[in-house]
Amino acid sequence: MMTMLPFIIDIERNMIKKTNDIIRPANLGKRCVIITGTNTKKIAGQKLYNELKKEYETDIVISVSNEKKELGSFAKNLEPYDFLLGVGGGKIMDITKYSAYLTGKPWISFPTVLSHDGIVSSRASLSDNGTKTSIEAKGPIAILADYDILKEAPMRWMISGVADLISNYSAVEDWRLASNAGKEKYDELCAGLSLTAANACVAEMKNIIRKNYEGVKTLLEALVLSGFAMNLFGSSRPSSGSEHNFAHALEMMNAPGLHGEQCGLGTIISSYLQKKNWVKIREYLKNFGAPTKASEIGITDEQAISALVQAPKIRSRYTILNRYDIDRELAREILEKVGVI
Ligand SMILES: [Zn+2]
Q1: Do the beta carbons of residue 60 and residue 84 sit within 8 Å?
Q2: Last residue of some domain: 150, 175, 191?
Q3: Ligand 1 centroid to 52 CA: how many Å?
Q4: CATH number of the domain encompassing residue 238
Q5: Residue range 31-62, pLDDT digits in tens
Q6: DSSP letter (8 states) at residue 26
Q7: Range of 170's domain?
Q8: 214 CA from centroid of ligand 1 (Å)
């Protein structure tokens, strides 16, 4: 499938009022449907609806389920529309991009929170009979963000987005290891995009923490870049390695914490196993205010140990975990060494 960049990635104050002017030249058609959630409708969905209906026959639908089999009929109801607009966080984006994929319609991403790199990636994280799976979907044709809305989103979610980007360091290192082991081809450009996203975040730490325009813009662009590295490569490899295995293992046992927070913990562990500068990674996370200890987000020692033991079995992707034989005893030792437990 051809990878396309969005025709516009823009963050501005009062973006809702500017949306019609921005998307008009794209000639998307007459009918538009906004897909949003109960809370995000209040935050942005309703205002966007009021604006879009001045120019398009617009409807607004609330979607709650990201269960893959339910999305088939959900998408069928979207057939009459010319384009879709997803307004919300990661879950709404996953639902919108998968619906866009099923219906073949273009979609616009209007994030209300910057908590992970799923806002641009063409893959959707959906529930398949209760199990989270990554499914082929479709990237947005435009990403429009309202600074005034994003800066009101809880800091914890933003910092989780940062931690998801910091995890690119260990993801790319795992990729390099896989390439050296002759398991997979390394792509210099995609790896470079992924690392640039992480570097940009670290470089703009002060602004991100202050949530000023520069900081929020950097975070948005870095998440877009990270997502695009995955789209361009055709899998999540550039931004997802063993640290994501650890996070996915936690998620599967319904351990607490946001995706990025769990990935951040995983990055400390992976960097240590990779013999990279894990102390620096931990320092970055700490300085951003991201958790560096499992207990900070309510994950028990037992859950962390089990997740690390499970991590190599989560998927077939070659990572540093393939070079260790981690049993419970070794897992505890590693986690204690890096201070995660
Ligand atoms: Zn992630």
Answers
A1: no
A2: 150
A3: 32
A4: 1.20.1090.10
A5: 999 999 999 999 999 999 999 999 999 999 99
A6: G
A7: 155-337
A8: 23
